[in-house]
Design brief:
By secondary structure, this protein is of the alpha/beta class. It has six helices and nine strands.
Length: 191
C-alpha cells in the first residue's frame, strides 16, 4: 500500500504568501495537487505546518523549527508506519504538473528503498517513492542536523526514474510570482 504525502510545510519566502492557497484553475494549488495525486495512491495526506482548509488528513512536522522537506518526509513516514503503509510517495505542493503516471513510473524502481523523479532540469528530491523502513534512520539523521534530502537519499543508494518533458517540465517548480504566472499559462493551456 502506498500513502501519498503532499509536502506543503514550507515557508514560501520567495512567493511571499502560502503556495497552498494560491488560486489555481478552478481551485487552489493544494486542492489541484491533491486531485492529481489521489487517483494514484491508496490515501493522500498533507504535510503542513499552518492552518489549511482541506478534507485530507494533515500531518505536521514532528520537530519544531521549520526543518524543511526532511521533516515533512519524517511526518509522512510516521503517519504511514502507524497506519500500515509500507511506502510513501511525495510531491511538493509547488510542483503541480507531475504526470498522471507518476506513482506507477516510480514503482518501476522496485528494489530500491528510495526512487526519485528526474527530468531535464535535474533530480527532484521532494518528488519520490520512499520505503517506510527508513523512518528511524531519517529521524536520527534529522536529529543529527542533516537537512539535505539528496545527501540523505544518496546514502541509501537512491535511484532515479526519468520523466520526459512535453511542452514543459513535468516537475516545474512554482517558487516565485513569475513562476506562478508561468504556471497559470500552463494550466490555461491544459483546460
Amino acid at each position: 500500500m502506498t500513502l501519498g504525502v503532499i509536502l506543503a510545510g514550507g515557508l514560501s519566502r520567495r512567493m511571499g504568501r502560502s503556495k497552498s492557497e494560491l488560486p489555481f484553475g478552478q481551485t487552489t494549488m493544494l486542492e489541484y495537487v491533491v486531485a492529481r495525486l489521489a487517483p494514484q495512491c491508496d490515501l493522500v495526506v498533507v504535510n503542513a505546518n499552518s492552518e489549511i482548509r482541506i478534507a485530507n488528513a494533515v500531518v505536521n512536522d514532528p520537530l519544531p523549527g521549520a526543518l524543511g522537506p526532511m521533516a515533512g518526509l519524517l511526518a509522512g513516514m510516521t503517519y504511514a508506519e502507524r497506519h500500515g503503509f509500507s511506502k510513501i510517495v511525495t510531491v511538493a505542493v509547488d510542483t503541480p504538473f507531475f504526470p498522471d503516471t507518476y506513482v506507477k513510473s516510480l514503482q518501476t524502481g522496485r528494489n530500491a528503498l528510495i526512487v526519485l523523479a528526474k527530468s531535464e532540469s535535474g533530480s527532484h528530491p521532494t518528488c519520490g517513492l520512499w520505503d517506510v523502513s527508513l523512518r528511524d534512520d531519517l529521524a536520527a539523521s534529522l536529529h543529527a542536523g542533516e537537512r539535505k534530502v539528496m545527501a540523505w537519499a544518496r546514502r541509501h543508494n537512491a535511484v532515479s526514474i526519468h520523466f520526459s518533458s512535453t511542452s514543459f517540465d513535468p516537475f516545474f517548480n512554482v517558487n516565485t510570482p513569475s513562476d506562478y504566472e508561468q504556471a497559470q499559462h500552463i494550466i490555461a493551456g491544459q483546460t
